[in-house]
Amino acid sequence: MQLFKPLLLLLLLYSGLVAASPLAELAHADPADRAGLITQWTVQADGPRRQAVAALEEGRLFSSTDGNHVLLQGVDGKLSDVDNGQPVAGDAASLDTLPVNNSVRSALEAFHAASDLADPERSKRLSAIQALQDSANPGLLPLLLSRQQQEQDSQVKQALLVASSRLQLASPDAAQRLQAIHTLADSADPATQTLLAPLADSASESDARVRAAATQAVADIKASQWRYNMLGYAFSGISLGSVLLLAALGLAITYGLLGVINMAHGEMLMIGAYASYVVQNLFRSWWPGAFDAYLLAALPVAFAVTFVIGMALERLIIRHLYGRPLETLLATWGISLMLIQAVRMLFGAQNVEVANPSWLSGGWVITPALTLPYNRLAIIAFVAGVLLLTWLALNKTRLGLFVRAVTQNRRMADSVGVPTGKVDMLAFGLGSGIAGLGGVALSQIGNVGPELGQGYIVDSFMVVVLGGVGQLAGTVTGAMGLGIVNKILEPSLGAVLGKILILGFIILFIQKRPQGLFALKGRVLD
Amino acid sequence: MTQRNIHTNHQGNLMASTRRMFLKSAPLVLAAAGLVSMPAFAADTIKVGVLHSLSGTMAISETSLKDMALFAIDQINAKGGVLGKKLEPVVVDPASNWPLFAEKARQLLSKDKVAVTFGCWTSVSRKSVLPVYEELNGLLFYPVQYEGEEMSPNVFYTGAAPNQQAIPAVEYLMSKEGGSAKRFFLLGTDYVYPRTTNKILRAFLHSKGVKDEDIQEMYTPFGHSDYQTIVGNIKKFAAGGKTAVISTINGDSNVPFYKELGNQGLKATDVPVVAFSVGEEELKGIDAKPLVGHLAAWNYFMSVKNPVNSKWIADYRAWAKKKGLANADKLVTNDPMEATYVGINMWAEAVKKAGTTDVAAVTKAMAGIKFAAPSGFTLEMDPKNHHLHKPVMIGEIQSNGQFSVVWKTKTPIRAQPWSPFIPGNDKKPDTPVKSK
């Protein structure tokens, strides 16, 4: 087969029926060489070559059933042989298309980028340069240099300079190499470091000045990378911390303030996540145009649903168990099982799909090595908002005042006329509602299934206990601390061992300081 | 935990248990309920166990295998069943809980007296039921690619061994066509399959001259959902040269992993991720556009074009529609579903050949059985090693969540369950032996 293809080509050439058109050349190229051929054409693109490349890219080239011919599907859907243009009978739907794999795809990207370099749109020119820079095709150097002369925009010009410098690293002229190293030394791109490494090595580089410059540049890049690495760790730590905080904030109220060991707390998160699933589906079927806004609509829905469920739980079950922590624990655990089962019956046991709205997909590229995903950024902002609202609710409203009064001395509050029963119910509803809000956020980063809450309940208790019962500030510190420590341990120890170590640490910490990081001062209830 | 999961109220389990409850007294009620077709009486049926997680972290992958098994059984029954008897499925839900797999397996074998079981996805679940099948001399068909290092006389392996999936995939990544990868990031869920596969791959990479500093291994627990750090690490590792990620992540963790890849802008043209446990089914819940070009290695893809495949997909969807499954006309098929289907049909064929469902006789009849599979190849059960001969295909993810095949073998390959890359395996026999 491998032998046969070139033979066939030769035969066709010899017979003089048709010259090997670019289309035939591309179609019959060995799959491993196809990307190379396109790369070669990048600097010599002309009409027929563009058409050939487009046919491949659009999946209009098929191998015939016997595998010896390649067929082109025209715009009319009819098939013809690429070698002689003769129409061929057959159905394209039953044939295999010529594969477009990753190497071909990146060659194609560079192929298009070469013509985009002169595009009037600035962003298009920039992404074209990025694509060409990655393709590392030395044949592009003259094109990049000539564009550099014509380019007006300073940022684009700089990008062109970096891209051409990368190629000039391989230049036979030592001065040019040196110049290129100086240009690249400022870049924080880790890929540059790999490119510079051979130039710093005496085995592959003869010029001492070039070696010195490259060594210096590699050190500079390493230093800047270290900074970005730290920034990355801090970011993912805060991001994990804010997820933990979202999960634990509601619990800080129900457990921290009311003293109810609420094992069904995780299920409030789960119900919040399912609420966003339901709202998403409603938007999909009724307002597909406004789909991106579904998440905002899901927030009040999730809050309302979990608020009501929380109040109902308090009124019907938990109310009768105050002061009996063991019974509360068992009862709420039973409720949690019932809620899980109810959701299983309503939505099925499998995970449901909650899509990210487009404004939460993708990320903010700070450097090529560090991207901050939008969904994580949004969660950090969201948790800050929820935290502020909770703080306001507890410290600036009448309900908050009552809640704090009941927390500090239930009997006294009762005797001065605070409706403690109602306060308990509302506070429990508030805690559940906040968990519902957290569920909406969790639906954006993880899987939504009936057991979603189970994965967070332990973490939530950990945060609240570590932070100190009854204190918002403690919960915040506990969550952020756990998040950041986890993310510092994870890269070196792995996710599994890191988690074990943290659990061990918390056990030791609680032994030493049972009241947690922040202890409630004053006359705390038993 | 265990107690709660036993009576998971999934439809499948409900079907099985209602059937058992009503069998003696009121077949009419059952027929009226419309849950199953009119059941024959116990003596006229051959019971077939279906042991797949219908809840928990593995439900994302295993639920469709249960559906496929029921479809294949219905199809065989429509053609008159086996030995003049109808097959009767007994569906249980081990709920992604490994010890529960063993309990459910014991229940299937001793209480329900099933003739054969089709089940398991993760190797840890297979390892959990293996002693039960060997002790009670049951028969298990295991439909998923796995790490090898096992050959039980009580199991037929219709998924790929490492030389039918993992090793060809890595060879492809190292080839010019696959992008000439020089560094490898091995990422998996923390259990026996990823760890053993990565051990084999490491030995294989060494044999190809890849040094230890160019290989990084990392594991996450089942159900892990925070892949920020790991994707960040991959980026850093990739700065050292052309890198490929080899993912043996199993279950629903794949969704957050691929989401994170997309969000952090790690493109397949820069760092391709080849997955061994991600197929059409797992991609259903993800926006595939940022993932175009990431790879999967399997022995079947839904996008394979041949008449057997198109008929299979159409029949399956029609069956699902009749059964009222959600989104029946959009259901996808994948490699383990194909392996399940092939396994059930081969078993039925072997029972016909043997004239009995006796495990020893069927096992003997299985040797060399052939079946025209949806992959477009005629697959053969190896006469000796209980593994299928399978073609290897490598596919790239397309924006519609399907795979386009970029490379495949011309003929099916014989499995090597004892990988030559693990020392000592050359002395292992090529025939099944009970594990101790």
UniProtKB/TrEMBL annotation, chain A:
<feature type="transmembrane region" description="Helical">
    <location>
        <begin position="293"/>
        <end position="313"/>
    </location>
</feature>
<dbReference type="GO" id="GO:0022857">
    <property type="term" value="F:transmembrane transporter activity"/>
</dbReference>
<keyword id="KW-0472">Membrane</keyword>
<keyword id="KW-1133">Transmembrane helix</keyword>
<dbReference type="InterPro" id="IPR052157">
    <property type="entry name" value="BCAA_transport_permease"/>
</dbReference>
<dbReference type="GO" id="GO:0005886">
    <property type="term" value="C:plasma membrane"/>
</dbReference>
<dbReference type="InterPro" id="IPR011989">
    <property type="entry name" value="ARM-like"/>
</dbReference>
<dbReference type="GO" id="GO:0006865">
    <property type="term" value="P:amino acid transport"/>
</dbReference>
<feature type="transmembrane region" description="Helical">
    <location>
        <begin position="269"/>
        <end position="287"/>
    </location>
</feature>
<dbReference type="InterPro" id="IPR016024">
    <property type="entry name" value="ARM-type_fold"/>
</dbReference>
<keyword id="KW-0732">Signal</keyword>
<feature type="transmembrane region" description="Helical">
    <location>
        <begin position="325"/>
        <end position="347"/>
    </location>
</feature>
<feature type="transmembrane region" description="Helical">
    <location>
        <begin position="461"/>
        <end position="485"/>
    </location>
</feature>
<feature type="transmembrane region" description="Helical">
    <location>
        <begin position="491"/>
        <end position="510"/>
    </location>
</feature>
<keyword id="KW-1003">Cell membrane</keyword>
<protein>
    <submittedName>
        <fullName>Urea ABC transporter permease subunit UrtB</fullName>
    </submittedName>
</protein>
<feature type="transmembrane region" description="Helical">
    <location>
        <begin position="230"/>
        <end position="257"/>
    </location>
</feature>
<keyword id="KW-0813">Transport</keyword>
<dbReference type="Pfam" id="PF02653">
    <property type="entry name" value="BPD_transp_2"/>
</dbReference>
<feature type="transmembrane region" description="Helical">
    <location>
        <begin position="374"/>
        <end position="394"/>
    </location>
</feature>
<feature type="signal peptide">
    <location>
        <begin position="1"/>
        <end position="20"/>
    </location>
</feature>
<keyword id="KW-0029">Amino-acid transport</keyword>
<keyword id="KW-0812">Transmembrane</keyword>
<dbReference type="InterPro" id="IPR017779">
    <property type="entry name" value="ABC_UrtB_bac"/>
</dbReference>
<dbReference type="InterPro" id="IPR001851">
    <property type="entry name" value="ABC_transp_permease"/>
</dbReference>
<comment type="similarity">
    <text>Belongs to the binding-protein-dependent transport system permease family. LivHM subfamily.</text>
</comment>
